[in-house]
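Dear support,

Our group has been running a series of protein-ligand predictions, and this particular one with flavin-adenine dinucleotide is the one our PI (initials K.S.) wants archived with full inputs and outputs. We had some confusion internally about which version of the output was final, so please treat the block below as the authoritative record. The input we submitted was:
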Amino acid sequence: MFGKIKLSADFIVIGSGPGGATVARELSKKGKDVLILERGHDYREKFYYGTYLGAMRYSQHASLLFTEEGLNIIAPLMVGGATSMYTACAAPPPQWLKDTYGVDIETEVAQTIDELEIKPLPLELLGTASTRIAMAGRALGYDWFAQPKFMNPERSRQQAKSFDCRATCMLGCRCGAKWNAAEWVDEARGHGARLITGARVKKILIDGRQATGVQGRIMGRPFHATAPTVILAAGGIGSPRVLQDSGLNEAGVGMTMDITTMVYGLSRKKGTGKEPPMTWSWENQQAGYMLSTLTDPWLLYPLAAVRKGLGPTLRWLRWNKLLGIMIKLKDDISGGIYPDGKIRKPMTAGDDQRLHDAWQVCRQTLVEAGAKKSTIFMRPFIGTHPSGSVRIGDMLNTDLQTRIDGLYVCDASVFPEALDRPTVLTIIGLGKRLAKMLISDS
Ligand SMILES: Cc1cc2nc3c(=O)[nH]c(=O)nc-3n(C[C@H](O)[C@H](O)[C@H](O)COP(=O)(O)OP(=O)(O)OC[C@H]3O[C@@H](n4cnc5c(N)ncnc54)[C@H](O)[C@@H]3O)c2cc1C
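Confirmed final output from the archive:
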């Protein structure tokens, strides 16, 4: 009864996370004809946005997506991508991106820091327990620093809401303090870009060596859209899948994840769960890991701890006294996104070594901060940064172009190595740089 939907634009952007949103915003600001195709929907006005129910609704597989090795991946599918569920930490790109790979985004990153007023939360909002952990770390000789944030209490006030950042920030921001890439999608639309939600791109249309458009389904109905330039920004899992379905089978061979876990210990005083997440961090760049203050949201804690046995699970009863330190590892490239739908991410010997080092430092720090040694344990691994699956240097040149003319990739999948730090500022920098280049070419 209904035929195929036909669309066209000068630029098609697939995905609306920080990669897609940035490119779409910058192009549309210059009057370009942009079509954004987003698999998910906009949940910001829904009553369940920022709740446990919401997190299940908008995360792939209701937050129960696992690698073959049992690592739990959180991959939100929605307008704004994973920035709805991120903890809003900001870190500049690693120096090696410029020195080793020739990708210089310093100007774009400096501009973004200014534009979004990225800075640590004011001292009084850094959290008493979080600050206790950071000071314990410093006393042991580790130089913990107040983590810069895409989060500003002033934004809550402007929306007549009160600042209420805590572990539940990872379900979606209800107090308005956190910047979300969906805001740049709104801006792009304000400049004339078209957004279609519920639009899942299946493959890129290619004629010889030139991209000519995309095809897929919009709310289950087949569509095809033509454009001479396609920017794939479907994230570390989505982008390699689309490329594989388009015949670029080298995509998804190997990936990075910044493999993450939390180390918990019980103290007599107030814990970190009700404080803003990740307000303090310490990086050991030489060994390859980063630590930050963080506790799982209350209802998610037992789901993680149950895999560690009765003792850790029962500590749920004293969740508000738990001190938590998150470990993020600079994992080696391994496993990948497989054409059969599976995701593999085995730990290498190097990853095990980094984890061992980080675990020792966390234990020491938690004890120094007042946690009882016998209560300290590490939760199962989690993956919040699926990345490095369409790498610069392997599949992309430094301009983020594939071997197909007119086909670019701009998201976490392009990282040539594990970033081992918050990704979003780097992705925005890459997006701004790509948009500049596309504008000058056109
Ligand atoms: C719980 C959590 C906490 C985090 N905390 C931080 C933090 O504090 N700081 C930080 O910098 N980073 C953080 N991150 C990581 C960061 O949010 C992601 O790395 C980043 O959002 C990735 O951006 P992206 O553009 O690559 O893709 P995504 O944000 O994943 O966006 C990709 C978009 O593409 C869409 N899509 C996928 N497939 C298709 C398709 N076939 N067709 C159309 N659309 C498609 C998806 O629905 C999605 O909206 C966190 C992530 C999580 C999950």
